[in-house]
Structures are given as structure tokens and as C-alpha cells.
Design a protein that fits this description.
CATH superfamily of the largest domain: Glucose Permease (Domain IIA)
Number of helices: 10
Largest sheet: 7 strands, antiparallel
Shape: globular
Radius of gyration: 23 Å
Number of domains: 2
CATH topology of the largest domain: Glucose Permease (Domain IIA)
Length: about 350
């Protein structure tokens, strides 16, 4: 006959056990909602195994998820959207090449070597301005090793430019807003992505400028065209912290900062997976290389430049609205002053 064991808990122990069980249940629910099956279960209210436009919450991206354009999102389309499946060759649906997805998405199981092959390596470039001009500088440089701050090997995909809360962030070139993300579960926080044609940048490439960590959701909308210098939104510190990613106790918050990065490609197509824009045949660009205003811009070429060419003169917008130089097609994302 087996022995019956009685576990006696004091109130504090009982509370901790209850807290852990609730936290575990909530974590399981959150993880389930990130899967195609979880989303389908939550949003398919009429049980027809698809999600209508009325049932879909993020109306502005419905058409991008509804890949076959039949007015409903299927389980298969959700799986494609979340990267759980690749398209059937006979479906007519195309995704970016696997290296672009791996290099730009940077997921847990993506190959870090793809980042480096697509340009996320240190170049040694740095910005300079005229002596009588004061501009906001970089404190975290391009391709800085972030591995100590992440659960896996990682490199900084852009530059960080600190500024006080609420400081206006400007569009660096003429272009179209193609994505606005809330980023509640992303280290990038609130994010805006703009697309720039070769005619707008003066470079024979399709460029994507990405701005993150806004203080609040910007008022710009997907499909809106902005002119160089237009205000996108206010500087903030939104986004999941490094300590949260590593499941550690967070002892301080992120400083208010703009994380600014540039992607480029010769292909005009891009894919929006709901949380990130992935251009076809995408490459990373050191944002400083953009301001060289000439080809090449690839990181390998930038890394081999002579030391005297590592300093890049930056075009900018003064607080009084004056451009320098007057005919520039690109500016620093913060205004400067004399």
C-alpha cells in the first residue's frame, strides 16, 4: 500500500507556487498566440477555418497576409506569414531568398554567417560635420558585437543616436512609408520603415530606411509619402530590453535613442511578414556609407577604404530649415545647429 505524502506550505510558499503556475499558463498562452494555430484559434470566431477582414485585427496589413486575394486568410497563409512554412512551388507565391530572410530576420535559428555575407560587418566609417555645426552623434556603431546582450551571437544592425525624449526624428530622404509596427514584443519597439527609389536617393538601388524606439506611435501612415526632413515622430525608448531577452532582472531602462539602419537591394520587391520588412536580395549598409552618395556602398568595400576616407562628411538639416549642402538628397535624421 502506497504512502500518502502531505505537502505543507506556508502562505508565502503557496503564493510563490500560485504565481509560478499562473505565469507558466500565461507564457504558454502568449507563445500559442504567436503561432499560426494560436492566431487562427483566437481570431476565427465563426469557425470556418479562415479569418475574414472583419475578424482580422490589423486591418492595414490584411491584404498583405491574404496572399491569394480571396478576401480571407487561410491557415496556410498564416503559416507563410510567420515563417512556419515555405510556399508550394506550384502556389505562385514567392518569398525572398532564404539568405535574405535569415540575414534580415535574425531569428533564433537563422545563420549568423548570413548576416556577415550580406554586409553586417564593421567598416570603420564614422560621421563628421563642419567645425561650426553641432549634430547628434553615434554612441553604438554599425555591426558592434552585441552577443553579450543577446541569447545568441548578434551584431548591431545600424547605428544608435541618443537624444532627449520627444526630440523630432526626420525622414532622411524622400520616400514612402511602407510599414509602421507597434513592436510590443520586439527589441526594436515602435518602428517606421520607409522605401526610397533610385530617383529619390540618386543611387542605383532601392533603399529602406528604418527608424525605431519611438516614444509613441507616430502619426504617419502606411502608403504616405514623406519629403526629406519631414518629422516622422518623437524619440523614445520603446522595445524589449536585452535583459528581458535573456530572461534576467532588468535594473535600468533603455536611454532615449534612435536606432537607425539602412537596407539596400537592386530588386524592387519586398516582403512584410507582419513585424519586419525583408527586401528581396537584401543587404545591410552602414548608414554612414549612405552619405558618401556614391557607389560602392557595400560593407566589404567600405572596410577596405584607406584610413583617411573613413571619415564621412554628413549632409544635414539646420534647425532653421536650411539644408547643407542645399542640393542634398539625404540628411541626418536629427536636425543640427550652428
Amino acid at each position: 500500500m502506497g504512502r500518502k505524502t502531505t505537502v505543507r506550505c506556508n502562505p508565502s510558499t503557496a503564493f510563490r507556487l500560485l504565481f509560478v503556475s499562473v505565469l507558466t499558463a500565461l507564457s504558454a498562452e502568449v507563445c500559442a498566440q504567436k503561432t499560426a494555430a494560436g492566431i487562427m484559434s483566437k481570431l476565427d470566431r465563426n469557425g470556418d477555418a479562415s479569418i475574414s477582414r472583419e475578424e482580422w485585427r490589423k486591418k492595414r496589413i490584411f491584404d498583405k497576409v491574404d496572399l491569394d486575394g480571396d478576401g480571407a486568410i487561410s491557415f496556410y497563409e498564416l503559416q507563410l506569414r510567420l515563417g512556419e512554412k515555405v510556399p508550394d512551388p506550384e502556389s505562385g507565391i514567392e518569398l525572398p531568398d532564404p539568405v535574405s530572410i535569415s540575414a534580415i530576420r535574425r531569428g533564433r535559428h537563422d545563420n549568423v554567417q548570413d548576416l556577415k555575407d550580406r554586409g553586417l560587418i564593421e567598416t570603420g566609417l564614422y560621421p563628421v560635420w563642419d567645425k561650426d555645426v553641432t549634430c547628434r552623434g553615434i554612441d553604438h556603431w554599425y555591426a558592434m558585437d552585441y552577443s553579450r546582450l543577446r541569447p545568441k551571437q548578434a551584431y548591431h544592425g545600424g547605428v544608435d543616436i541618443p537624444a532627449p525624449f520627444g526630440t523630432p526624428i526626420h525622414a532622411v530622404m524622400d520616400g514612402e512609408v511602407i510599414a509602421v509596427y507597434e513592436g510590443k514584443r520586439s527589441p526594436r519597439g515602435i518602428e517606421v520603415v520607409m522605401r526610397h527609389t533610385p530617383e529619390e536617393s540618386g543611387l542605383p538601388l532601392h533603399l529602406y530606411s528604418r527608424y525605431t524606439h519611438f516614444q509613441r506611435m507616430p502619426e504617419v501612415e502606411v502608403g504616405q509619402r514623406l519629403k526629406m526632413g519631414d518629422i516622422i515622430g518623437p524619440t523614445g525608448n520603446t522595445g524589449v530590453l536585452s535583459c528581458e531577452l535573456k530572461h534576467e532582472i532588468c535594473r535600468k531602462s533603455r536611454r532615449p535613442v534612435l536606432h537607425f539602419d539602412i537596407l539596400y537591394t537592386s530588386n524592387e520587391n519586398y516582403y512584410d511578414n507582419g513585424t519586419m520588412v525583408i527586401p528581396y536580395e537584401a543587404h545591410w549598409m552602414d548608414p554612414n556609407a549612405l552619405f558618401r552618395k556614391s557607389m560602392p556602398v557595400d560593407s566589404q568595400s567600405m572596410a577596405t577604404l584607406p584610413k583617411q576616407e573613413k571619415a564621412v562628411p554628413i549632409s544635414y538639416l539646420l534647425e532653421n530649415g536650411e539644408l547643407y549642402p542645399p542640393d542634398t538628397r539625404m540628411i541626418w535624421p536629427y536636425s543640427c545647429h550652428r
